[in-house]
Amino acid sequence: MTIPTSQLAATASALAGFGCSHVAIDALTDSQLLEAQAAYATHHRAVQAYGVWIAGAIARRSAFSLGYSGLARRNGFGTPEGLIHAATGGTKAEAVKFVQLGSMMSQAQGATDAHDDEVTPEQRWQIPIVTAVGDGTLSVDAADAIRRGLGQLDAAVTAIALREAADRLVAEAAVASADEIFRRARQARDALDADGIALRQKERRDLRYFSAKRRPDGLVGGSYLLADEDAALMLAIYDRSTEPSIDDNRTAGQRAADDFVGLLRIGADADDGTVFGTRTPAVRVAVQQAVRESRAGSGFLQDADDPVSLETIDRLECDGGTVGVLFDNDGQVVNVGREQRLFTTRQRIGFAVRDGGCRFPGCQRPVSWCEAHHINQWLRDGGKTNIEDGILLCRMHHMLVHDNHWEILRRGASYWLQPPPDIDPAQTLRPMPSRSRVIRELAGAPPGAAPPGAAPPGAPAPQAGRQ
Ligand SMILES: [Zn+2]
Ligand SMILES: [Zn+2]
Question: What's the gap in Å between 293 CA and the centre of ligand 2?
């Protein structure tokens, strides 16, 4: 993890050898220009190694435990990142990367020098990354991409497996961009840790937000972050809005803004009593037949690299907001969509009147915010989409039911919610009364108020399903 001064001087003079002005560079032939670009990249990595060493040392001398006598504080900065940010004129995010890598480098240096038992496994798997940065063979951006993409060491993956993946990615980074390396690192992590897919999906989803704020000039601006199928839906609409059009003199951004406000207006005007969901599906998911049959593995949203859990695929297909594309092991398409499982417009009108909104206990979301959930597992049930096997749930509760394995059981005309064992070990059934006034009055009492054992004789046995 050292760069001899002779090497740094050599990379600098190799670069300078191509000329010392934009005029000189402009005069190079194409192949010389590409050589100059390669020389620049080599020198830049060598210089970045110094940046990382310096950042690591500044961070150590600015340790929180040193209080006001720390280097950053003495110079008027709250953090070492702040000091470096101000000194380099780069971005804050860049300063954070240098400090993280610099701190990691000193830990890993300790790891290579120290006895085995003094080294944490987390430090050990990152050794190939910091070594390559220190040797000037890996850029800081690529190093950061590998670390973030491979994620944390936890019970699901071994340090050895992460280290092997890190070794491979460091080698691949010589001929790939940092963005591409990040994508491959994410895929490597998913391959190592299939069970973690649902967890990482949740982590991505937890980052979602939307904010809007009035600016001093009176305009309203904002930002947002969306994951997975929400992201896919947003992009599908955005791409459609920004398609080039010759007889439209608005900019692409203006067309997208107009369409977005149009959608808000439609949503705001929507009748609370309409169940939507017969729309043209905007999101497509691909899943292997073997994965679906074995219920082990994951699928992908079209045009997205991050896998999504089977629970998510089930939920998307449950309501018909997506088209499932089923593949066999050779990559051949087996089936596209399964329209027969979708509830019809007429059935949705029936749900609206019968359920009156989300039937999850205590939820007040109106019908227009709801999705139609199939209470029976579709495959097991032979694909029936009878109205009694569907129930309205708002999106949040629909997600909860699929992702956390709540079950909905039907007995006669009443519906019961069974919590998963980790929420309620006894799995005591909870009533799901209709919120429709008609139904309440027809029943003379809130339906579902009686325990399931009190269902009328001859009532069909409860039917359970995860879908
Ligand atoms: Zn569902
Ligand atoms: Zn709800």
Answer: 30
The Å distance, Cα 315 to ligand 1 centre, comes to: 5
Judge contact between 389 and 318, C-beta under 8 A: no
pLDDT tens digits, 148-207: 999 888 877 888 899 999 999 999 998 888 999 998 998 888 888 877 788 888 888 899
Measure 132 CA to ligand 2 centroid, in angstroms.
51
68 near 153, Cβ under 8 Å?
A: no
Q: What is the pLDDT of residues 360-382, one digit of tens each?
A: 998 888 888 888 888 875 545 55
Determine the Cα–Cα distance for residues 398 and 359; give it in Å rounded to an integer: 10
Å from CA of 186 to ligand 1 middle: 28
Nearest ligand to the C-alpha of residue 358?
Answer: 2
Ligand 1 center–CA 284 separation, angstroms: 16
Query: How many A from CA of 311 to the centre of ligand 1?
Result: 9
Count of beta carbons in the 10 Å neighbourhood of residue 58: 22
Q: How far apart are CA 28 and CA 36, in angstroms?
A: 9
Distance 331 CA to ligand 1 centre (A): 27
**Single pTM value for the model:** 0.57
Rounded CA separation 16/339 (Å): 65
- Is the Cβ–Cβ distance between 99 and 84 less than 8 Å? yes
Write the DSSP symbol of residue 463.
B
> Which token pair is 288?
């292997």
